[in-house]
């Protein structure tokens, strides 16, 4: 019996983290100082799949997509270490109100919310695949909402706030010209 209990505990410890909490905002705030470049935060609709990569943490928010997206963007903006690289599903512009009532209104609300960020589009399956791969090495925080319009997920790749891509490129050029010790 003791071996069985120990085996069950070991199996449970290897499962990905999935939390159901009404206090998702506190979890988001607590996670922010730990997150850095190459981590992801996702704000997803209610049908988004529960991924099993070990680094993917899913939290059920029971909140609206826009409420959670606003909170995430605010936390990222207020952080000292990261800035967002925003991705959305390439399928969303093709979803009609006749197929999914409210799709047009949602697109307008998200466009307003994301107006100061460049938004990149990727096919949904590619984004899910990228998240699965990232979750093998990096932490991915998935905040599941009560949204019922398909292809509305917001994927935020975190990048370093205080070191730009141009700075990194210049550093690599300098290093290429210097002898390695």
Overall description:
With 181 residues, the protein is α/β, with parallel strands linked by helices. The protein has one domain (16-177): RbsD-like fold. Helix content is 39%, strand content 20%. A seven-stranded mixed β-sheet has the order 1-3-6-2-7-4-5. The protein starts with a helix and ends with a helix. Mean pLDDT is 90; it is low at 4-20.
Short description:
The chain has a single domain, classed as RbsD-like fold (3-Layer(aba) Sandwich), CATH 3.40.1650. The protein is 39% helix and 20% strand. The protein is built from six helices and seven strands.
Annotate the secondary structure layout.
Elements: H1 2-14, E1 18-20, H2 24-31, E2 40-44, E3 56-60, H3 65-78, E4 82-89, H4 103-113, E5 119-122, H5 124-134, E6 140-144, E7 154-160, H6 165-177
Parallel strand pairs: 1-3, 2-6, 3-6, 4-5
Antiparallel strand pairs: 2-7, 4-7
Question: What is the typical, i.e. mean, pLDDT?
Answer: 90
Whole-number tally of structural domains: 1
As residue ranges, the low-confidence spans are 4-20
Counting helices, strands and paired strands, the structural category is alpha/beta
Number of helices: 6
The CATH top-level class label: Alpha Beta
- The whole-angstrom Rg is 19 Å
CATH architecture assignment:
3-Layer(aba) Sandwich
**Beta-strand fraction estimate:** 15-25%
Q: What's the CATH H-level superfamily name?
A: RbsD-like domain
Shape: globular
Determine the CATH topology: RbsD-like fold
């Amino acid at each position: 019996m003791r071996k069985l209990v120990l085996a069950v505990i070991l199996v449970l410890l290897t499962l990905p983290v999935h939390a159901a909490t009404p206090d998702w905002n506190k979890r988001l705030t607590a996670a922010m100082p730990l997150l850095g470049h190459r981590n992801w935060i996702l704000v997803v609709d209610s049908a988004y799949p529960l991924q099993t990569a070990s680094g993917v943490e899913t939290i059920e928010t029971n909140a609206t997509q826009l409420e959670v997206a606003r909170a995430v963007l605010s936390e990222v903006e207020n952080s000292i270490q990261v800035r967002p690289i925003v991705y959305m599903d390439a399928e969303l512009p093709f979803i009609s109100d006749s197929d999914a009532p409210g799709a047009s209104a949602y697109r307008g609300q998200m466009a307003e919310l994301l107006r100061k960020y460049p938004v990149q589009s990727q096919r949904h399956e590619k984004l899910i695949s990228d998240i699965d791969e990232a979750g093998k090495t990096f932490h991915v925080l998935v905040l599941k909402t009560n949204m019922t319009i398909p292809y509305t997920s917001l994927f935020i790749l975190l990048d370093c706030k205080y070191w730009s891509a141009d700075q990194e490129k210049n550093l690599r050029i300098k290093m290429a010209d210097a002898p390695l010790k």
